[in-house]
Design brief:
- 5 copies of one chain form a homopentamer.
- Chain A is an alpha+beta fold and 354 residues long.
- Chain A folds into 2 domains: 14-284, Beta Polymerase, domain 2 (2-Layer Sandwich), CATH 3.30.460.20; 314-351, no CATH class.
- The first copy, chain A, has 9 helices and 7 strands.
- Chain A has helices at 50-58, 73-82, 87-94, 151-159, 169-204, 208-240, 248-313, 322-325, 329-350, and strands spanning 31-37, 42-47, 62-68, 101-104, 109-118, 125-134, 138-143.
- Chain A is rod-shaped.
- The two termini of chain A are 46 Å apart.
- The interface between A and B is large, with 64 and 63 residues.
């Protein structure tokens, strides 16, 4: 179960720009990896602090510095200082409850969004915040914990596959965003498969567990939507920005992300409506079965009540009950009961109640 | 049952512009047909590759190249190369999970949308992606599988019916779009007929199957809407484009498509609301019948319970029960039972419960 | 019951501008009436074809040509030819499933909308399409079947009442539109009266028929809304057009129609919400009554069950049942039953279940 | 119960600008009162016709002419003629079913809106239409019936309290609008108190009457909303008008009305949502109680059914029933019944059904 | 329980700008505190009246004057006079039912919004109105009652922590707004924890109290939303204002508040949807349990009814009942009963009703 809110209140009362990491990541030292490349050269190494990364900043090659572990205040303050990050930007980076957004700060563009992954064990969606600082020839990426969806990009950089090594920092940033958004589709596929499974079950034999699954999926989608909805605005901001940091030829690629973001939203909305439909199907299906059971049982009871009454009458101990002494009395009583039962069965089936 | 999501995840991690066909079409060789015409001449042939089509590109006549089978990577790459298609455009063409959209790329306009058809057997809507590349004097159309709604247009081209042979590539593109959108009305008509059928049944005798049909129709409409909704934006994009590829006199025709797209959307929304109303009608109808059954049965039970109790009293074996030895006892007991039953019937009908 | 969709599919595959009448009107010859007037003169006659009307077109006087019967292809093609109507406009005129809209084609303004009337017998709304062609000094009006709401306008023209004879073709078009929109209020009044009737009944004694009426009204309103909703956009189009065909002093009158259109929409929406409220009232009212019935009946049953059990005990035939031989046994048993019954009644009424 | 629609159909077919009063006000002679003031002078009198008021029009002082009784056609036509009112404006003034709106006609600004009041007896909202004509140095106000919310303004004018006597006609118009909008808050307060009353009751003991009240309040709010919603647009129109009739320094006051109008709307929407919540509370509360009753009663019945069956067995008259002749038979039977009853009670309470 | 509406009607009829405090604060004398600071100096004192504060107004240092107790008319009028507040602004400050908004009045910017706090005892949200007047070098803040969320700011001012002492009045105003908005997150956290508690309970054992809690939370959120929704517009107004009172470098900070406001709204909406989902879960969970109970109980009853009938038959006292005298009669009857019972159990479990 995703927590409903992150504890952001511990920030209350602090001056703006205070670096108070709000994350589920454990308090370990940050892991910094540096990848520096251009069309011909490629270097990959790890670093201990922002200072170590500083030399790469001036070079004409593109540098991608990835930081895992935003709770390491010392490292974060180092990046703030050496890369000239605005205090509010730094505050946003370390606050993993941040709403996805982009901001153009002149020297760099700040992008923050959610990287989603599936917890294979519980089937729930895990959300990790990724912040990007896109400069003229460098990209900083900040993550809460190690592990991300960027490995194929690292592979393409190493093997110089595609056009990524020929392009600038903006294209790298695009590639990172694209990897994150593409991954949303995997999440939706998982949801789609879950829903198909439930739907098949609903037709054959609805169980309360299915309803539970429907509610869980619905809530997961609600969280998903909250993460994805601002994405459209974010990419739109990148498309409309007049920052020289983003080249004209990258725009077409950003438009592609925009299309994908809209498609993700569309699918989320469709899924939500379908889950609503499934819930209705479940409820009316269960109610149908219940009605059927109750109706048949009630009818059985109703048929026996009047004939049991007749048996009760001849079970009375009055001394003067003429029928009792007749030899045909017992059989007549049985006959009357049979006739009454038959009449009721006929009446009920005529009414369409059987 | 339409699949909930197409497996787009196999693309995750690949560089943008990778040609990974995502389609339900079988992996067969693509079928290419070329139609080249102007007001006076007409030629129709088939081709094996994009190279074969290349000579038609330079001619002043209009060329329509139709490709069935986007999963044929070799052919698709050929078109990408020889017709100068942007890698992202090519990627979108072969990804049949694409959201309908249009893009103006200067040399050509890229349009992708859904062609719908009814699966006569199951009554479900089949959706096939159609991509159009509209150039100065050629139109490329890419489909997933053979079979489309364009035969009347081919016929008009062959027989030079209407004004189609006198106009340019933009008019041909319009004609193709128009054929696709016109076909949506057939789908809606089918839905309308299904709904009329259900509605008639709901009034006479509602069955759970009708509710099932309502839910299925509702879900089909949901998918339909997802395919159709972006259409409006698409046509609007064509109307507002300042591309010289679309002539002024074609605008009026595009406006007509726009009107049709809005009307399709309106009808889909109305159908959705009507299905909601039908569902309500079904539920309250079933609940009405159920209530009536339960009420009558419960009343029968309630009437017999007190008089059965009286029979029980005189069935007790106490030695000293004065009434038992009276000659009138039995008849008095029957009378009392009758009176009590009568009083209850009168009371219940006064209360309006019968 | 209004049909859900008109059969527009028979047009599929035809070239645009094909004149394929889609109407419920019978295939009879069209009836053409011509009214020609200015401040001083007035002429009214009938005609057989568009050619006959042609001489009126050039005159400085205003000419109103009304055509009943759009299924008469010959006549319609005549008007298309002689009044220079665009093929798509002509196609729209004869397609009675057209969405209300206006188009400014330079030489004339094309307006198409729905004229509604009540079928007195069934209480359902009948919808007839009216198309107007507003030229410099003429107005063409096309209707599906004879019979319309324009008689008061004809009367005003004949008797020169109001300012209609002093104004141009645009004012005539306004008068026609105004007559159609004013008539919507009559429809809404009818709905309002129906709803008042149902509401009064809901308070006194709800019946399933009332629920049925509510659903029927709701669906009728849905159709009404579909016809009226685009009206606002239509009139707005007329208000914003810069066509010299509409004079400045007519604008104030069009604004009045705009206000009316909004008021009609408001009322439709309010009615829809009120019908929703009535449905809720009905359901909770029925459920209340049902609950009350079931509760009382169940309580009666529950009171008798334990005391019937006691009677059952003393109906057992064991040889050694000490109570049976006591002279006070019978009365004690009756007393115990009475006490138990009383306790239960008291308990139930304390619990507030009675 | 407010009538659903006013009978506006009697206007159908009349030329635009026809003065056909549509009002619930009785057909009596109009009552005209004239207040003429500037910073130093003040005159208050009544008049019989528009002609009598005419002399005040030219004076530099501000004149407020109030007319009660729009059904007096003669008087209304007099105002139309002598104050140069456009026929459509006059038609709107006498049609009390008018939607609130403002129109700038150059010489004067026309404002029409609803003045609401509570019918103390029935607790329903009465709506009266007020039309204002704001000229350079005069304000005409037209009401349906005598009695309004303007008395405090008259008092302030007489006693020269506040700044009203120092300002022009636009400030007077503002004061009138402000009085009307302020009064909406009283209506909402009444609704709020009703709702608090119901809510307290819902917690302690829900009754069907409360549900009825909820529905009535909901419907009243629906009507309220229909009257208030267009107000925002109306005041916005006044704020954006460039008419010299409204002075810059009055704008701040109009903005205040705008804020109030939004606040009224907010409260109406919040109330609507709260009533929805109350309805849900009522329904689940009733359903809870019902379930509890049914469960307990059903359980009682279920416990007695098997033990009554045992009594039935030993009530059978077979000659050979070994248990019957045992001296311990009766007590054993009672014991068995007791044990069975106990087991069922334990089972049910273990299951949590008791 | 928050009151539904504040009694604003006592203002009705008064001239605009009347100072009629509408607040829940007790009628005590206002408490005025003055903080005057620049980068080097700091002074903190209390005052009795607006006159006492006047000397600080002219100084180059920044002055923050906080007033607790808007019901003190004398003090409020003093501020109105000495700080040149517009009568309508003053009226808005003392009316605690004001909708959050900002207004740029040239000499100063007027901001009014809600400061929320949790009543620890009842768990309900308390709302207090805060009004800010932001001048060139002073900020006035007006509160209803003593006690606020500004203590950390006072501390930062005293200890010169952060950059607050180096900045102007606009930064101080930002800090106050930021403190208020940050506090909203604490409220939401409290709601989130309440909801998690309910959700855990819903899965294990749903109780009517949980439903009650859901409804209460839902209503609290409704009030919260009403307070927060206008905030976005308010901050947007500050961002778009061209007033020289707000420096360019403060804009970035205001944008941060804007982001926070949107995030608060997002969370409120998500919470509302989740509460809706919880309500559905509760209802279907209760209905599930109820159905199960009723089904099992009804089945028990149904099984015993036919076999009790058989016992009834052999309890009849007819003289000629052949079975009665058979030695195997009793056991045969018991056997038949057992078989019938068994058959029904098998039948019911085959049907899946058990």
């Amino acid at each position: 179960m995703p927590k409903f809110t992150k504890t952001t209140s511990k920030k209350a009362g602090l001056p703006p720009g205070s670096i108070v990491p709000i994350t589920d990541g454990k308090a370990a030292a940050a892991r910094i990896t540096v990848i520096d490349y251009d069309a011909t050269s490629f270097e990959e190494r790890s670093a201990q602090s922002a200072e170590e990364c500083l030399p790469y900043k001036g070079r004409p090659s593109v540098t991608w510095i990835n930081v895992d572990g935003i709770q390491d205040v010392t490292v974060m303050e180092g990046f703030g200082e050496h890369f000239g990050l605005h205090p509010l930007v730094l505050e946003d980076i370390v606050d993993s409850a941040q709403r996805p957004k982009m901001e153009d700060l002149g020297d760099y563009i700040f992008v923050v969004l959610k990287m989603l992954s599936l917890d294979a064990a519980t089937g729930s969606v895990k959300s990790e915040q990724v912040a990007l600082i896109v400069g003229a020839d460098y990209v900083l990426s900040f993550q809460e914990v190690p592990g991300d969806v960027f490995d194929p990009i690292r592979e393409r950089l190493r093997s110089s596959k595609g056009r990524i090594r020929d392009r600038g920092a903006d294209y790298l940033a695009y590639a990172l965003l694209d990897a994150i958004v593409d991954n949303y589709f995997s999440i939706l596929e998982y949801f789609g498969e879950e829903m198909e499974g439930v739907e098949v079950g609903l037709v054959s034999a609805p169980t309360p567990e299915m309803l539970q699954t429907i509610y869980v999926l619905k809530r997961e989608l609600l969280f998903l939507r909250k993460s994805i909805w601002p994405l459209r605005e974010l990419v739109n901001g990148l498309l409309r920005t007049e920052s020289p940091l983003i080249h004209e030829r990258t725009m077409m690629y950003l438009r592609d992300i925009y299309d994908n973001a809209i498609q993700v939203m569309d699918t989320v909305e469709t899924f939500r409506e379908m889950l609503g439909g499934m819930r209705d199907t479940y409820i009316s299906s269960v109610s149908n079965r219940m009605n059927e059971v109750m109706k048949v049982l009630t009818i059985i009871a109703t048929i026996f009540i009047p004939i049991t009454f007749i048996a009760g009458i001849y079970g009375m101990n009055f001394q003067h009950m003429p029928e009792l002494s007749q030899p045909w009395g017992y059989f007549a009583a049985l006959g009357v009961m049979g006739v009454i039962g038959l009449i009721m069965v006929i009446y009920f089936s005529r009414k369409g109640w059987l």
